[in-house]
Design brief:
By secondary structure, this protein is mainly α. About 45% of the residues lie in helices and about 5% in strands. The chain has 19 helices and seven strands. The strands form three sheets. It has a three-stranded antiparallel sheet. Strand 6 and strand 7 form a beta hairpin. The two termini are about 35 Å apart. The relative contact order is 0.16.
Length: about 475
């Protein structure tokens, strides 16, 4: 990876709005099939799995990998996900992937079921939560990374054949890492809601562990910088504490978490939602609570509205750069993460505005749910082909998709998988060759184009071509809603 640094009338009207968006629309002479994009988004997450793969694995070129993970610390840390194009398991972005995927599953349960992807979504979440239960198996300790990124990045090898050290990093009450403890708590709390009616015992286990990790995060404060320079938490840990407390309140309805939101939590006005900056996500969740009657949280709605006004063209407070083709662009390097994340939050707020017959005001300008949903759809459509390049930025989907995703497993041919491995020569053999990847990384949304809508489809231009799990995870919910309008 690079330096990435309800019911009744309301639902009927929401469906009417979405019907106006059309599930399969004509884009540059081709159709956008949202259901296909949804399915393939989940297949990409399966391609990122570490550990012993299940019999129903849908990625034929992937195999078992990293089966000794955790051995150096005398603990089983097999499973989980590789975050991007390398073979390291980073806890912070992995936890954010699971939190946002769980949010997608909660908010789009009916739509995912209709698309036939609810079970696959649940399986993807559980692949992460099973791993987090292993990582948190010891009291006041959380294992947060497996693999040495500096050495891993010196070798271009499939995870099944990697020979680089599987170093284990941890946080504890004596060596704190508030961001990652709180984000893992959020992931487990959100996932407990997903599994509540499916596997109650498992759900309770996730929730109990989430409570303990939040307590660890809140009682032993300190920033975690062990993943720098790859995943540096530049925003600090207050956003993760707010995010975790919000999910814990949603999962438990206990007064202690609501009191934390009212009297202890620190929030902020932001224009970004990402693995490093969670304020906007928590604020959107809290707006739902406000609309449902919870008092004493009005500041969070002001901040959520500010997020919308900062991103929405036509708002006098618009500040987030849009490319000439209309895509949000915050920074190079996995920029599509901001596109899918912002689109998801816009769609979530649009649904709330429609259900409660509300509007949002940016200065004197008034916007309703249709404005927000149209903007969300435009961002997703850009990724899927409606852009000046006339190409899709999802591998294996739509017009002229990327062929050289920056990804070790996808680029090494299976026929050469078991050949003697030389790390220096691996770059010559597989990384530097200007040819399509040997294996299709189906469904991967790559980093995407630059500020001028330009894109370079080369393996070595990782800012354009590297995918990440958290780009896809948060797209799942919105893709399901768009697919449901067919």
């Amino acid at each position: 990876m690079g330096n990435h640094g309800e019911k009744g009338r309301g639902n009927i009207v929401i469906r009417a709005i979405l019907l106006g968006l059309i599930s399969i629309v004509c884009v540059n002479g081709t159709n956008i099939n949202y259901k296909e994009a949804l399915t393939k988004s989940l297949i990409f997450l399966e391609a990122q799995r570490s550990g012993k793969l299940p019999p129903n694995n849908r990625v034929p070129w992937r195999g078992d990998s990293a089966l000794d993970d955790g051995k150096l610390a005398n603990v089983d840390l097999t499973g989980g996900y590789y975050d991007a194009g390398d073979n390291v398991k980073y806890g912070l972005p992995m936890a954010f992937t699971i939190t946002t995927l769980a949010w997608s599953a909660i908010s789009s349960d009916k739509e995912l079921r209709a698309a036939g992807e609810l079970e696959n979504t649940h399986a993807a979440i559980r692949w992460g939560t099973d791993y987090f239960l292993k990582c948190s198996s010891r009291k006041n300790r959380l294992y947060v990374q497996v693999g040495d990124p500096n050495l891993d990045h010196k070798c271009w090898a499939r995870p099944e054949n990697m020979q680089t050290p599987r170093t284990v990093l941890q946080i504890s009450d004596k060596d704190p890492g508030t961001e990652i403890a709180a984000e893992t708590a959020a992931a487990l709390a959100a996932s407990s809601i997903v599994f509540r009616r499916i596997d109650h015992k498992y759900s309770r286990r996730l929730l109990n562990k989430a409570k303990l990790l939040f307590k660890l995060a809140k009682s032993h404060k300190g920033s975690y910088d062990g993943a720098c320079p790859f995943y540096c938490s530049c925003s600090g840990y207050n956003d993760e504490l707010l995010w975790a407390a919000t999910w814990l309140y949603k999962a438990t309805r206990k007064q202690e978490y609501l009191s934390y939101l009212k009297f202890e939590a620190i929030s902020g006005y932001v224009a970004e939602f990402s693995w490093d900056l969670k304020y906007a996500g928590a604020q959107m969740l809290i707006v739902k609570m406000i609309f449902e009657g919870t008092k004493g949280l009005d500041l969070y709605k002001q901040q959520a509205d500010s997020f919308i006004c900062s991103n929405l063209p036509g708002s006098p407070y618009h500040q987030v750069f849009n490319t000439p083709g209309g895509m949000i662009h915050l920074r190079d390097g996995a920029n599509t993460q901001y596109v899918t994340a912002t689109a998801f939050l816009f769609s979530a707020y649009a649904e709330l505005l429609q259900k409660h017959n509300q509007k949002i005001y940016c200065g004197k300008n008034q916007f309703d749910s249709t404005h927000l949903m149209a903007f969300a759809k435009k961002q997703i459509d850009y990724i899927l082909g409606h852009n000046p390049q006339g190409r899709s930025y999802m591998v294996g989907f739509g017009p002229n998709p990327p062929k050289q995703a920056h990804h070790r497993g996808a680029s090494v041919p299976l026929a050469e998988a078991n050949a003697p491995l030389s790390c220096p020569l691996s770059f010559v053999k597989w990384f530097n060759k200007n040819q399509p990847n040997a294996n299709e990384l189906t469904g991967a949304i790559v980093g995407g184009p630059d500020r001028q809508d330009n894109f370079q489809d080369f393996r070595w231009t990782s800012v354009y071509t590297e995918p990440c799990t958290y780009i896809n995870s948060i797209a799942v919910g919105l893709l399901a809603k768009l697919a449901a309008t067919a």
